[in-house]
């Protein structure tokens, strides 16, 4: 069958893309879980959170029914704490470090407790922060993703007037356009962005792209400082024959369509191959299945032991019925009349570890052929190298070079998030925004 849409009924789409991590139904359920916490001294869950949320404190506040105080504790460290409670890989962060794991018991459901407080705060529009009077300083932030929004919120709380320039029609960045719809809805992302803006002193100019509608020199001349949080977003190419046949697309574009269109307008193949095993690959594979693909096969050139995604994410793909082929690397895409019909993969073995310590895959000379009508490339994302190079910023293959406070090689220009680190978790971007704001406040002597 050809790549098409309208595969499922409205009810089926609704069921397939419903919340994969349901919230606590009521306060009683949240209280029961909160009271399991033993409120560790020098808690490991705090140390494992990139934004250092005081987890025992906010859980204790829930346990004492101080939900507003709990939300304040979370947002004070992570203004995107609502979204992070839905999308963070908590199994390798806060919940993964919970001491209950050492006792072979289920860890505290930190994410669900965090979600309980933050969702209530966002839904009821609690004004938890007061902005200092405007001090006359103006800062431009490029990118309304987690890093940019976090930076803007910290600056505005200190009385700095912030203008954000965002290339898309909505804010939220990766949260809005790049994460599986069953984890966080675009509607929630919009509510979260509006909650950040409710502090005041922050204005977003949408459909304004750096290097196209605005330039860095213009921003430098109009503002006291500039923060760049443009993320990454260029799909890594496979560099194999047939890669540009119809039916071959990158995961970024595929997920973007799911996030920005009704589900019944997103086209998906009958037999889909997904190349890669990171979080984006998992999101692409599971959503292809939930859009109605008959068969989805994930192809990864290493073994399960080397996969970049977490076991929890892999289990989601398995439960959705995705097939997995380990030790297989894409070699060629075959096609008929300009359309992809098969993916040829080289069988691999693992050799000696590479520079990162991971064992390098080596071709065996054998191949396998998968009959497909759609191939989704999720082999990683690359920085906007040509754009960054044109900004005269010191960089390494497109990743902007900064110090710990986001200071770049240009005076008064700061950067953070994926455009600096190459791509990490949402919570890392939030912390980068905080670090950048601290550097800007010092630079402005505020």
TrEMBL record:
<dbReference type="GO" id="GO:0016491">
    <property type="term" value="F:oxidoreductase activity"/>
</dbReference>
<dbReference type="InterPro" id="IPR009051">
    <property type="entry name" value="Helical_ferredxn"/>
</dbReference>
<dbReference type="Pfam" id="PF14691">
    <property type="entry name" value="Fer4_20"/>
</dbReference>
<dbReference type="InterPro" id="IPR017896">
    <property type="entry name" value="4Fe4S_Fe-S-bd"/>
</dbReference>
<protein>
    <submittedName>
        <fullName>NADPH-dependent glutamate synthase beta subunit-like oxidoreductase</fullName>
    </submittedName>
</protein>
<dbReference type="Pfam" id="PF07992">
    <property type="entry name" value="Pyr_redox_2"/>
</dbReference>
<dbReference type="InterPro" id="IPR023753">
    <property type="entry name" value="FAD/NAD-binding_dom"/>
</dbReference>
<dbReference type="InterPro" id="IPR036188">
    <property type="entry name" value="FAD/NAD-bd_sf"/>
</dbReference>
<feature type="domain" description="4Fe-4S ferredoxin-type">
    <location>
        <begin position="28"/>
        <end position="61"/>
    </location>
</feature>
<dbReference type="GO" id="GO:0051536">
    <property type="term" value="F:iron-sulfur cluster binding"/>
</dbReference>
<dbReference type="InterPro" id="IPR028261">
    <property type="entry name" value="DPD_II"/>
</dbReference>
